[in-house]
């Protein structure tokens, strides 16, 4: 099937409302310390089956590590080289609701959420020979700017991290006086690889840790944070990664067996046969249609009303109740929501795809702004059974290029390809997340009635089987 050029789109979308309503109606019916032994266990930890369901953080600096995303959240810092924080919510330990609330207030007021961090520091003054002195001076300079904490003791020992020798600095700390001066431990590791110093830092309890609201529960919280931090750091490896990325496994349906598997295979086989849409039919035109031009995104005329894709770019948006939008450039750079951080109400947004930024539309969800033609793709990642209306607008989001309504499942992936020449679509649609295209949505032609019926039948079977 031929892609639809931006410059040639003049027949626009109408919503597949009947399909989405039918879908929604159906829904209403039915611990080891970090020391010199670290390097020896790191490679084993990284490949252990225990870590297969963990998220992965990678860096263009050539390393990666894994983390238990169901318990802990990961978020980029603003260091120009590399910085990632891991957030530990109060739910990493089990306690009653009242104590959990008190612990949450302690974590917030003392400032302990980001209990683990990894930073790459560009330092021309550090060498392997003077790393110990450099690290001490680095922390002393940092101490002068942090007046909320008081250093009670410090111990420095040789260690290794990522198969690189360095130093471990263990410090006992007295926290903010306004929070009853709680005591805890911060464990820092500094190693040098080529021109960069890698610093890891995580929190642990002291013998007398006691939080002002949650009391001794605070010590349990820091004990769990220490255990998780050590497990995360044991997965760190220099592996020549080439991309800054935070990813978690996509939800996968449990495997089918017997008659259920046979039935699903028959339904999907029928759905995948033949043409998905009628090229002799077109969507009804929308009222606020953008006018066509040559499709260029640069140097628009003074009156941009006459252009389809002027400098403000193409806007692609959709309600995020049932699906999320993700954009990727040809290198794999990503713009869109990061994995949800446990305890947060909304996922943080990153803007790593070349030429693509994000825009918050409030209650209408968020959008992607394509500032120039690139080779890449937009992914519509399903979160639950329902539907999403994908809106493609132009001229600074002031007029419509296309509309399409499509169903979603907890496993669905819709892929809208983009090319440097300005082509968009069609949308390849995978219903069950197995990596096989089950359907295609055209940007110009509506699906046939037969295919819509077959599509709905597969979704109903997925819902009935719970898979």
Q: Strands, helices and their partners?
A:
Layout lengths: L3 E2 L11 H13 L8 H10 L7 E5 L3 E5 L5 E4 L5 E6 L9 H14 L3 E9 L8 H15 L4 E12 L2 E11 L8 E11 L2 E10 L11 H17 L3 E2 L6 E3 L10 H15 L41 E5 L4 E7 L4 E4 L11 E3 L4 E5 L5 E5 L5 E7 L3 E9 L4 E10 L4 E6 L4 E2 L2 E4 L8 E3 L7 H17 L2
Antiparallel strand pairs: 1-23, 2-3, 2-12, 3-11, 4-5, 5-6, 6-10, 7-8, 8-9, 9-10, 13-18, 13-20, 14-15, 14-19, 15-16, 17-18, 19-22, 20-21, 22-24, 24-25
Helix pairs in contact: 1-7, 6-7
Could you explain how this protein is built, in words?
This protein is an alpha+beta fold and 467 residues long. The protein is built from seven helices and 25 strands. It has helices spanning 17-29, 38-47, 97-110, 131-145, 217-233, 258-272, 449-465, and strands at 4-5, 55-59, 63-67, 73-76, 82-87, 114-122, 150-161, 164-174, 183-193, 196-205, 237-238, 245-247, 314-318, 323-329, 334-337, 349-351, 356-360, 366-370, 376-382, 386-394, 399-408, 413-418, 423-424, 427-430, 439-441. It has a seven-stranded antiparallel beta sheet with strand order 4-5-6-10-9-8-7. It has a seven-stranded antiparallel beta sheet with strand order 16-15-14-19-22-24-25, with no helix packed on it. The protein starts with a strand and ends with a helix.
């Amino acid at each position: 099937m031929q892609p639809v050029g931006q410059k040639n789109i003049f027949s626009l979308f109408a919503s597949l409302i009947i399909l989405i309503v039918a879908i929604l109606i159906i829904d209403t019916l039915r611990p080891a310390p970090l020391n010199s032994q670290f390097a020896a266990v790191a490679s084993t930890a990284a490949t252990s089956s225990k870590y297969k369901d963990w998220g992965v953080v990678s860096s263009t600096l050539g390393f990666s590590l894994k983390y238990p995303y169901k318990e802990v959240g990961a978020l980029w810092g603003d260091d120009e080289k590399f910085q990632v924080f891991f957030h530990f919510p109060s739910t990493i330990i089990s306690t009653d609701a009242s104590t959990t609330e008190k612990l949450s207030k302690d974590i917030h007021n003392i400032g302990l959420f980001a209990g683990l961090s990894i930073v790459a520091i560009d330092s021309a003054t550090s060498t392997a020979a003077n790393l110990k002195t450099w690290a001490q001076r680095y922390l002393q300079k940092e101490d002068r700017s942090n007046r909320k904490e008081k250093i009670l003791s410090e111990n420095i020992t040789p260690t290794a991290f990522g198969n690189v020798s360095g130093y471990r600095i263990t410090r006992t700390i007295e926290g903010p006086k306004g929070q009853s001066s709680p005591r805890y431990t911060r464990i820092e590791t500094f190693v040098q690889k080529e021109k960069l110093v890698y610093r890891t830092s995580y929190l642990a309890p002291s013998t007398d840790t006691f939080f002002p609201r949650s009391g001794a529960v605070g010590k349990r919280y820091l004990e769990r944070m220490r255990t998780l931090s050590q497990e995360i750091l044991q997965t760190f490896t220099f592996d020549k990664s080439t991309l800054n990325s935070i990813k978690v496994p996509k939800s996968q349906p449990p495997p089918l067996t017997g008659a259920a598997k046979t039935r699903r295979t028959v339904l999907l086989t029928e759905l995948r046969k033949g043409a998905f849409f009628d090229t002799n039919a077109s969507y009804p035109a929308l009222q606020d249609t953008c006018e066509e031009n040559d499709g260029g995104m640069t140097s628009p005329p003074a009156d941009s009303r006459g252009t389809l894709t002027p400098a403000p770019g193409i806007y692609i948006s959709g309600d995020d109740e049932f699906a999320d939008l993700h954009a990727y450039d040809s290198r794999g750079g990503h713009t869109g929501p990061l994995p949800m951080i446990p305890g947060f109400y909304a996922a943080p947004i990153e803007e790593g795809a070349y030429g693509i930024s994000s825009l918050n539309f409030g209650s209408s969800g968020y959008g992607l702004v394509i500032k120039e033609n690139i080779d890449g793709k937009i992914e519509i990642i399903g979160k639950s059974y329902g539907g999403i209306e994908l809106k493609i607008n132009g001229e600074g989001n002031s007029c419509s290029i296309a509309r399409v309504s499509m169903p979603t499942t907890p496993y669905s992936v819709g892929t809208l390809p983009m090319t440097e020449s300005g082509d968009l679509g069609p949308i390849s649609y995978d219903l069950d997340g197995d990596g096989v295209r089950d359907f295609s949505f055209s940007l110009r032609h509506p699906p046939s009635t037969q295919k819509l019926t077959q599509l709905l039948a597969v979704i109903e079977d997925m819902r009935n089987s719970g898979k």
